[in-house]
Design a protein that fits this description.
The chain is mainly α. It has six helices and two strands; from the N terminus they run H-H-H-H-H-E-E-H. A two-stranded antiparallel sheet has the order 1-2. Bound molecules: zinc ion (ZN) (2 copies). One zinc ion is lined by residues 163, 186, 190, 209.
Length: 209
């Protein structure tokens, strides 16, 4: 009888230690993968920022060249070849960027049909007011996370603006109705296209429209 109790206690102890060991290993693994992911995101963000500043610098030099006020004149050909080199470099790096999956909340919480109707009316009467509603702000922010915090055209980290591809689903937009773009890409679209026959300026502080 005594031997049986000792065996049972020993078995319980062994199983307990096994469970403890497994839990500790699981926690260590989870925290390492989280740290790796964060450092990878930081590295990519730093890289993108340095590219962005190179491009801003090139743009400024092109602008001064056009304005004719360069103290040390560079030729357009010089600037163009520097531009091409930078872009080629960026393209090569972007093609090696591993896809990082960022867990994002589904960006489209359901509003009641009455509220959707109300939102459509607000948008019709005063579009900037629609862009400042809680619903739109929430949706636009979730949309930015949903696409992994990157411009859907050029992969830049932003600042990111949420663009309506059309205005047919105002108040209950789905992901395919919207596109997340950096300011430069967004501006390109608005300079070149009318959306649903409307040439809208970019409308709220976050640049959504
Ligand atoms: Zn872009
Ligand atoms: Zn837009």
């Amino acid at each position: 009888m005594e031997i049986i109790s000792i065996l049972i206690i020993a078995a319980i102890l062994v199983v307990g230690f096994a469970i403890l060991f497994y839990l500790v290993r699981l926690c260590t693994r989870l925290s390492t993968s989280q740290t790796n992911r964060e450092s990878e995101i930081n590295r990519l963000t730093n890289e993108s920022n340095s590219h962005a500043s190179t491009i801003t610098d090139l743009n400024q030099r092109i602008a001064s060249l056009e304005a004719g006020n360069l103290t040390n004149p560079e030729t357009t050909a010089d600037l163009l070849s520097q531009w091409n080199e930078t872009i080629t470099e960026i393209r090569q790096e972007i093609s090696c960027i591993p896809v990082i999956h960022i867990r994002a909340q589904w960006p489209f919480p359901n509003a009641s049909p009455e509220r959707i109707e109300e939102l459509r009316e607000i948008a019709q009467n005063n579009y900037p007011q629609y862009l400042s509603t809680n619903e739109w702000t929430h949706r636009a922010n979730n949309m930015r996370r949903f696409v992994g915090g990157r411009c859907q055209a050029c992969n830049s980290p932003g600042p990111l603006e949420v663009h309506h591809r059309h205005y047919l689903t105002i108040g209950h937009e789905r992901p395919l109705d919207l596109t997340v773009l950096c300011r430069e890409c967004h501006q390109l679209i608005h300079n070149n296209r009318e959306i649903d026959g409307i040439r809208r300026p970019i409308q709220n502080n976050n640049g959504d429209c």
